[in-house]
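Z., the sequence and structure:
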Amino acid sequence: MEKKSHFIKREFPQREVPAVLLLLLLVTILLLNGLLYLYLNNFYGSSGRADMDPSLCPFGYFKLGPMKNCSPWLSCEAINKEVRKLKCVGEGAVKKVFLSEWKENKVVLSQLTSAELQEDFLHGLKMLKALQSKHVVRLLGYCEQQFTILTEYHPLGSLRGLNETLHMPKYKGLNTWHRRFMLAIDYMSIIRFLHSSPLGTLVMCDSNDLDKVLSQYLLTSDFHILVNDLDALPLVNRSAGILVKCGHRELRGEFVAPEQRWPYGEEVPFDDDLMPPYDEKTDIWKIPEVSNFFLGHVEGSDIVRLHLFDIHAACKKEDPAERPSAQEVLDTYRKVLTLLIREAAMPGTREML
């Protein structure tokens, strides 16, 4: 009798395992996206994105260090009686700067260097008072009669020392593309704020080279940026036909925008009366160089530069009208940050799907 072969068909749940893995992967992606949303929402809400800080005191008041209550800006009398100079820490064309002490708090006392520059000094004070926000160094008091301004002290100093700071053992862990790019976003938030300030469109004129730009900003202890020097901040009002010129001398070099350079060639001597005025798009032209400084040469920074290539190319358009606004650049920076964080959090997800 012929034996029949009996085959038992077994159902192996081969398709169930990939389905479960796929489900787990999708859940993971959703969770990571949720965490990313919360992170970015916190980042944009607490690091210079909002113009007005809810923790700031009302106009004319300040809060410093462990102070629980807001105090009025210090008057001439209070500054003379309560503020003690410690040492000179810097001197510019307009101000001499002293590290000082007020009620056991380190503060910065700035005083006019030359009577000829009173107008610049008082303009800077006016801007400092009017623009108090998360983007601007905190004003603690002033004395117009003595040409004195008192502001908050930030021990890390200006952005000139950023690279040196990031190479210190204490801060080496912050020397990453992510932290550096966040500083670039802080910078763009400030430019956007100035271009749409409560006073109107303001141009950062103290910016004829990279070093000068960096000297205008402070690095805070929690690694954010504040604008510190507002002495040269003229107003643009296109509807009223008001444009600006940054100083009365000829500007040279590739760092300044084309419209800031003498347009009539070497054969015609520079004449300020013949120099055409311009608008805030001069600030946009300088963004790629400033951002390049922020990004530095750390792992991942070239990837960021690649993602910013198109918007930076647009910043370098010869025609100012064709350059993007500060808001458009800021929006692009934020989108790139979101994309890069998502890719870093979920490497290889495309291949897995």
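The chain is about 40% helix and 15% strand. Residues 16-46 form the longest helix (31 residues).

Let me know what you think.
H.
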